[in-house]
Design goal:
Elements (H helix, E strand, L loop, with lengths): L2 E11 L5 E11 L3 E5 L6 H8 L6 E6 L2 E2 L5 H7 E4 L12 H11 L4 H14 L15 H13 L5 E5 L7 H12 L4 E5 L3 H7 L2 E6 L2 E6 L1 H4 L3 H6 L4
Helix pairs in contact: 3-4, 3-5, 4-5
This protein binds adenosine-5'-diphosphate (ADP) and magnesium ion.
């Protein structure tokens, strides 16, 4: 059994003093699909951002044995892709295709190879027709898919998605779940979407006030109404 992500005693306080993570520890096996659920402000987004060193607090995070610290950042970013909740935080190029090419180019692919990879990835997310458009001119659902493609184009071993179905219409939501279901590698999602958790995940961890307070299969955790209510989840 290979451990993909190992987190030990992660604490993180924002510069204003807000303690967002207060000692979170867990291991995720290679290929496992894990959901983090929790009320607003529980620390889900902060936690995802510690996985590839965007945020660095106390404690240790290891990705396939490599510590997430400054000297390893290149290797870590190669292994962990994070899809932000808000696609506007992810997309910054003149066209969607440029955004999706950015990662492959950074990895050292030639322009031609990066373009081929980006075109294929846009096709995988069902957006072959919008590559030339400015992300500004896309719908929210299309932006979310382009944001996902910017990370999928790097073939990361660990993929972390923050609220991947938020703001999507039912069809878009279904497509996003199907897309995630077809991925290989380890998958981590922060979400309020229990349907997604049931359909997609092997395991669910409840975060509450910056601590992980429950960990189990979706069928057990999500049917424990007392536990859910205790942590602000219905
Ligand atoms: N940039 C920031 N500066 C200060 N506090 C923040 C910042 N971002 C998030 N927080 C706080 O950190 C805590 C955890 O937030 P977050 O990780 O976004 O939770 P979640 O994703 O579960 O809703 C909350 O109390 C939130 O208000
Ligand atoms: Mg969040």
């Amino acid at each position: 059994m290979t451990t993909a992500v190992s987190a030990e005693g992660i604490k993180y306080a924002y510069p204003d003093g807000t303690l967002a993570l207060d000692g979170v520890s867990f291991d995720i096996r290679e290929g496992e699909r894990v959901a983090f659920v929790g009320a607003n402000g529980a620390g889900k987004s902060t936690l995802l951002l510690t996985l590839n060193g965007v945020l660095k607090g106390e404690g240790t995070v290891r990705i396939h044995g490599v510590a997430v610290e400054a000297r390893n950042m290149k290797a870590v970013r190669r292994m962990v892709g994070i899809v932000f909740q808000n696609p506007d935080d992810q997309l910054f190029c003149p066209t969607a295709l440029d955004d999706v090419m950015f990662g492959p180019l950074n990895m050292g692919l030639s322009r031609n190879d990066a373009m081929a990879k980006a075109e294929k990835t846009l096709a995988d997310v069902g957006l072959s027709d919008v590559g030339g458009k400015s992300p500004f001119h896309l719908s929210h659902g299309q932006k979310k898919r382009v944001a996902m493609a910017t990370v999928l184009s790097m073939d990361c071993r660990v993929l972390a998605l923050d609220e991947p179905t938020s703001g999507l219409d039912p069809k878009g939501r279904k497509e996003a779940i199907k897309l995630m279901g077809g991925l290989s590698g380890s998958l981590i999602v922060a979400t309020h979407d229990f349907g997604l958790v049931r359909e997609l995940c092997d395991r669910v961890i409840i975060l509450s006030k910056g601590k992980n307070v429950a960990d189990g299969t979706p069928s057990v955790i999500l049917s424990d109404s007392v536990l859910l209510a205790e942590h602000g989840l219905e």
